[in-house]
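Retro notes, item 3 of 5
We never archived the inputs for the adenosine-5'-triphosphate complex last cycle. Fixing that now. Sequence and ligand:
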Amino acid sequence: MKVAVSGKGGVGKTLIAGGLARGFVERGLKTMAIDADSSPNLGLTLGLSTEETRKIVPISENKQLVESKTSTGYSGVYNLNFTVDDIVKQYSVATPLGVNLIVMGTVQSMGAGCMCAPNAVIRALLRHLVVERDEAVVLDLEAGVEHIGRGTARQVDALLIVADSNLKSLEIAKHIHDMAQAAGMKQLYLVGNRVMNDTQKKAIQSFADKNGLTLLAFVPFDQKVIEADMLGETPLKNKDIAAVKTIDNICELLLKKTA
Ligand SMILES: Nc1ncnc2c1ncn2[C@@H]1O[C@H](COP(=O)(O)OP(=O)(O)OP(=O)(O)O)[C@@H](O)[C@H]1O
Ligand SMILES: [Mg+2]
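Structure as it came back at the time:
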């Protein structure tokens, strides 16, 4: 099970990515969560403290590691034939929710293009995690459309596109959907998040219907999510939170759809 979570900034990607990762762990799957956002905070959602989250050096910013993998001794010439399984062992962090976390840092152009050393390491690592290893992977993508349909993100089993009832977030969802579809991705699902009432449900549903998006689920707005975030606690520990329960149900749906 390899799933990527995308959408406009602030729509709830990290909450949903974290919730899915925890859900996979609870269903007995060894799970790696990948924070591919340039402002990484998935660690907090997976139950790490702010101090622990701050201490994690993103792979792309770990100069020593990147250098040790790619250096040939000649300036401007990179070694592109290196191992990455050791990076997973050494740099993934165990979180209180049982999910292993790896923080990638900024991923410029996950497809072809920039061949600079940090990107070469990240691309190889993503490929290894998404294509070669068989544990479950949840990829929390950077906001927007930049990374969709290119490189490794394209190879996931399912792409979740998160939006709320705001038309701007739905427009971005459509853009992501269309790009992913053009790239040949098959399992694309819209998730309506922070839904407060039937009017918002209808707005999301009718946008999906008009634009050929498949709606997978509505995640309700829940004040307890905001309160937990305010206190620096993960909302995911509290199963009484309606939003958390719904995200857990999405795990079940995804496992069935990609079986
Ligand atoms: N279902 C929900 N109910 C209430 N609040 C929510 C819900 N989902 C997300 N939030 C709140 O919305 C804010 C943004 O959520 P989150 O960080 O998951 O979004 P994001 O898409 O990952 O943002 P970014 O683009 O900045 O990475 C957070 O304060 C979170 O607590
Ligand atoms: Mg986020």
